[in-house]
Amino acid sequence: MNPLHERALQLTRREFLGRSGTGLGLAALSGLLGRGGLLAAPATTGGQPRLAGLPHVAPKAKRAIYLFQNGAPTHVDLFDYKPKLQALHGQPVPDSYIGGKRFSTMTGKADGKLLLAPVEPFHQRGQSGAWVSEFLPHTAQIVDDLCFVKSLHTDAVNHAPGISLMLSGAQIPGRPTLGAWLTYGLGSDTENLPAFVVMTSVSKGTSCGQIFYDFYWGSGFLPSRYQGVKFRGSGEPVLYLGDPDGLSRSTRRAMLDDLAELNELKLREHGDPEIATRIAQYEMAFRMQTSVPELADLSREPQSVLDLYGPSVKEQGTFAYNCLMARRLIERGVRCVQVMHAGWDQHNSLTTELYNQCRDTDQPSAGLVADLKQRGLLDDTLVVWGGEFGRTPFIQGNLDDRKRWGRDHHPYAFTSWLAGGGVKPGFTYGETDDLGMNVLRDPVHVHDFQATILHLLGIDHERLTYRFQGRDFRLTDVHGHVVKPLLA
After folding, report:
1. DSSP β-bridge partners for residue 198
2. Do 421 and 383 meet the contact criterion of CB atoms below 8 Å apart?
3. 3-state secondary structure string, 253-317?
4. Phi/psi zone of residue 31: left (φ > 0), alpha (ψ -120 to 50 degrees), beta?
5. What is the pLDDT of residues 71-93, one digit of tens each?
6. CA–CA gap between residue 481 and residue 68 (Å, rounded)
7. Distinct helix (H) and strand (E) counts, the chain
8. 74 vs 3, which has greater pLDDT?
9. Which of 28, 37, 162, 397 has its CA 20 to 30 A from that of 369?
10. Do 199 and 342 form a contact (C-beta atoms < 8 A)?
11. Taking a C-beta distance cutoff of 8 angstroms, is the pair 114, 77 a contact?
C-alpha cells in the first residue's frame, strides 16, 4: 500500500482536525503577524526572552515585589485616620453612608450597625506627616519612602474573587496573574531561577481560614511556563531538586539532552506550546539544582541586614524569611516575586489577631524597603503592599465584648502603599469620607492600580494583550487608567 494512503487511514479524527486547524491557523497567523511586524525574533534580557517592542515606555522599575496581605487589612485601624470615627464610637452608622451598598452575607444590611473607633491610636510620622497607627511602628519609620493610595475600591465583596480580581483583573479564576503577564512581556534576567516566584506564610496561631489557591499565581490561558513557581515553606524550597542516589550529574545531563530531542520532535510535529514549556522547565530544574541551594544559604548575610527583617528572619516559612528571600531573588534576576501572607480576615479578632498580623509583617515589610534602599535597588524595584479590600468602619459583633470585636469585608474604600520603582515618596493620594466608608476624592479602581503598576515597569496596559478564544485579553480587561499623580 502507498505509505501516504496508509498514513491517511491510520489518522484519527481528532488528529486530522487538530492538524487541519493548526495549518489554517498558522497561515492566518503568519499573515497577521507579518503585517504587524511581529515575526521578528523576541528581544532578550540575558535570561528568558521578552516580547519584541517592549518596553512600550521608558520603565522606572525593572522588577516587582508584591507583598500581598490575604484577608484584607483594616484601613481604618492602620492607615486611614478618621477623628469622626473616634468621636462617633458606638453610635449607629448614618444611613447616608450606606444607602444601596452591598456587604457580605455576614453583615447583610448595614442599617443600625454601630461604628467602631480605631483599636490603637494614630500619629503623624516623618516629614510627610503620614498618619500611621501604633500597630505599625516600623512602617511608621519609613513613611517618607512610601506612596500611600487611600482611595482604592473594588467590585468584589468576598476573598477569593477579590484576590483574583486584584491579581488577574477578573473575579472568576482562569486569567493570567500580574506576575505571569510581566514574565510573558518582559522575560527575566536569569537563566537559573524562575522569572516569577511565589512564597506564602500564615501567622502562627491564627484562626483566620485563608486558603492559598494556585490560581492566585496562575498563568491562565498563557503558556504554563509563565505561571508562578511556589517555593515551599519548609524543607527544600522546591521538591525533587536532588538527583536520585547513584545518578551522576553527567548522566542526568545526558538523559535531559535525549529527552529534549524527543520533545523537540513532538514540538515540530504538533506545535503545542506546552511541549516548549516542558523542555524549558526540565532545563530550569537542572540549573536550579545549583542555584536554589545557593539562594537559600543565608550564612553570608550580615547580622545588621538580618536585624532589619526581625527575629523570625531565619525561620523558613515566615513572612520575614520570605521578604529576605524576595530581595535575594530579585538580586539574581527574578522579574516578579509575590509574597503572600494570610490571616487578616478579622471578623471577630481585631483585639487579638490584628496584633499578631502586624507583629509578623510590619518589621519585615519596612526592613525590605530599607534593605533595598541601602543597596541602591529601591530606585528600580517596585514594592507593593496591600490586600484585596478593606474592612468596615462599623463593628461586626457585640460592642460590649471587646475580645470579640471584628470588622466585615469592605470593597468601597481601602489603602495600599507602594515604594521605589518610580513612585512619589512621602506622598498620599486619594481621600475617603470622614468615616473611611466611601471614596471622597481621586478614586482608584483595581484596574487603575494595575495599569499604573504595568506603566512603572514600562508596559502600556492596553497594548500587552494575548488572543484567546477570539478575543484580545489584557490584565486590565477593558478598563483602567494610569494614575499619573503617583509617578515621580
Report:
1. 230, 338
2. yes
3. HHHHHHHHHHHHHHHHHHCCHHHHHHHHHHHHHHHHHHHHHHHHCCCCCCHHHHHHHCCCCCCCC
4. alpha
5. 999 999 999 999 999 999 999 99
6. 22
7. 14, 17
8. 74
9. 162
10. no
11. no
pLDDT digits (tens, 9 = 90+) for 111-157: 889 999 999 999 999 999 999 999 999 999 999 999 999 999 999 99
3 state DSSP class of 342? strand
Tens digit of each residue's pLDDT (9 = 90 or more) over 295-335: 999 999 999 999 999 999 999 999 999 999 999 999 999 99
Range with the poorest average pLDDT among 32-36, 417-421, 422-426: 32-36
Question: pLDDT tens digits for 255-270?
Answer: 777 776 787 888 788 7
Give domain limits for the chain: 3-36, 63-237+296-486
What's the confidence (pLDDT) of residue 145? 98
3-state SS class at 356: helix
416, 444 Cβ separation under 8 angstroms: no
Taking the mean position of all CA atoms in its chain, how far away is CA 90? 37
Task: Inform me whether the pLDDT recorded for 177 exceeds 60.
Answer: yes
Considering just the CA atoms, what is the radius of gyration of the chain in Å? 25
* 467, pLDDT greater than 70: yes
For 63-237+296-486, CATH number? 3.40.720
Contacts of 203 (CB under 8 A, 6+ apart): 319, 341, 342, 343, 353, 356, 357, 359, 360
CA distances from residue 442 to 144, 223, 323, 431, 484 in whole angstroms, order as listed: 21, 37, 31, 7, 11
Helical H segments across 340-428, by residue range: 353-374
Dist CA 302 CA 166 (whole Å) = 36
**Contact call for residues 128 and 121 (beta carbons, < 8 A):** no
Hey, which residues does 124 pair with through a beta bridge?
A: 131
